[in-house]
Amino acid sequence: MTDPLDQPLTDRETLPVELVDEHGRAVGVCQVSQAHRAPGLLHRAFSVVLFDSAGWVLLQQRAHVKTRFPARWSNTCCGHPAPGKPVAEAANVRLAEEMGLTAELIQAGVYRYRAEDPATGRIEHEWDHVLVGLLGTETPRPNPAEVADHRWVHPDELRAALHEDPTRYSPWLPGVLDVATTRSAPA
């Protein structure tokens, strides 16, 4: 079997994303880079939130080379499913690529948002499927091309930090956290 770290890196900006309408129905396809140019095209995405058995949330600090919101703290991982592909399947692949983890993921809901990155001018306009999972005994093994750092935080502590200094965090994190914790941490 080939080690995934030995494979050439994919230019994620050229991958296709699924454009959606105001109800989350597929209406077209474009490249990631095009979807994130102003004014931003509404497209399907996912955000994974992993909990531990005590209810703490695993955060990642996005790599400094990310094209949108680099170096900001965010949920465990996120990405875009290929058009027509199951969201949970794509989320599991991305979870392994970014954090070196596997987990059973359950969709908690959808969070729709639009945010402009003041540093890059790129736009996030996403129909974001929020998936939650429980991490057992695995230890995160972040891919340094994707993740600068990671840490565990209690949701109440995270909400306070988001309120105190929102610029340290991805703009979707508050909404994703609300969706993830409304469903409650998986048991």
Automatic annotation (TrEMBL):
<keyword id="KW-0414">Isoprene biosynthesis</keyword>
<dbReference type="GO" id="GO:0046872">
    <property type="term" value="F:metal ion binding"/>
</dbReference>
<feature type="domain" description="Nudix hydrolase">
    <location>
        <begin position="41"/>
        <end position="175"/>
    </location>
</feature>
<feature type="active site">
    <location>
        <position position="78"/>
    </location>
</feature>
<dbReference type="GO" id="GO:0005737">
    <property type="term" value="C:cytoplasm"/>
</dbReference>
<protein>
    <recommendedName>
        <fullName>Isopentenyl-diphosphate Delta-isomerase</fullName>
        <ecNumber>5.3.3.2</ecNumber>
    </recommendedName>
</protein>
<keyword id="KW-0413">Isomerase</keyword>
<feature type="binding site">
    <location>
        <position position="124"/>
    </location>
    <ligand>
        <name>Mn(2+)</name>
    </ligand>
</feature>
<comment type="function">
    <text>Catalyzes the 1,3-allylic rearrangement of the homoallylic substrate isopentenyl (IPP) to its highly electrophilic allylic isomer, dimethylallyl diphosphate (DMAPP).</text>
</comment>
<dbReference type="InterPro" id="IPR011876">
    <property type="entry name" value="IsopentenylPP_isomerase_typ1"/>
</dbReference>
<dbReference type="InterPro" id="IPR015797">
    <property type="entry name" value="NUDIX_hydrolase-like_dom_sf"/>
</dbReference>
<comment type="similarity">
    <text>Belongs to the IPP isomerase type 1 family.</text>
</comment>
<dbReference type="GO" id="GO:0004452">
    <property type="term" value="F:isopentenyl-diphosphate delta-isomerase activity"/>
</dbReference>
<feature type="active site">
    <location>
        <position position="126"/>
    </location>
</feature>
<dbReference type="InterPro" id="IPR000086">
    <property type="entry name" value="NUDIX_hydrolase_dom"/>
</dbReference>
<feature type="binding site">
    <location>
        <position position="36"/>
    </location>
    <ligand>
        <name>Mn(2+)</name>
    </ligand>
</feature>
<feature type="binding site">
    <location>
        <position position="80"/>
    </location>
    <ligand>
        <name>Mn(2+)</name>
    </ligand>
</feature>
<feature type="binding site">
    <location>
        <position position="126"/>
    </location>
    <ligand>
        <name>Mn(2+)</name>
    </ligand>
</feature>
<feature type="binding site">
    <location>
        <position position="98"/>
    </location>
    <ligand>
        <name>Mg(2+)</name>
    </ligand>
</feature>
<keyword id="KW-0479">Metal-binding</keyword>
<comment type="pathway">
    <text>Isoprenoid biosynthesis; dimethylallyl diphosphate biosynthesis; dimethylallyl diphosphate from isopentenyl diphosphate: step 1/1.</text>
</comment>
<keyword id="KW-0460">Magnesium</keyword>
<feature type="binding site">
    <location>
        <position position="43"/>
    </location>
    <ligand>
        <name>Mn(2+)</name>
    </ligand>
</feature>
<keyword id="KW-0464">Manganese</keyword>
<dbReference type="GO" id="GO:0009240">
    <property type="term" value="P:isopentenyl diphosphate biosynthetic process"/>
</dbReference>
<dbReference type="Pfam" id="PF00293">
    <property type="entry name" value="NUDIX"/>
</dbReference>
<dbReference type="InterPro" id="IPR056375">
    <property type="entry name" value="Idi_bact"/>
</dbReference>
<dbReference type="GO" id="GO:0050992">
    <property type="term" value="P:dimethylallyl diphosphate biosynthetic process"/>
</dbReference>
<keyword id="KW-0963">Cytoplasm</keyword>
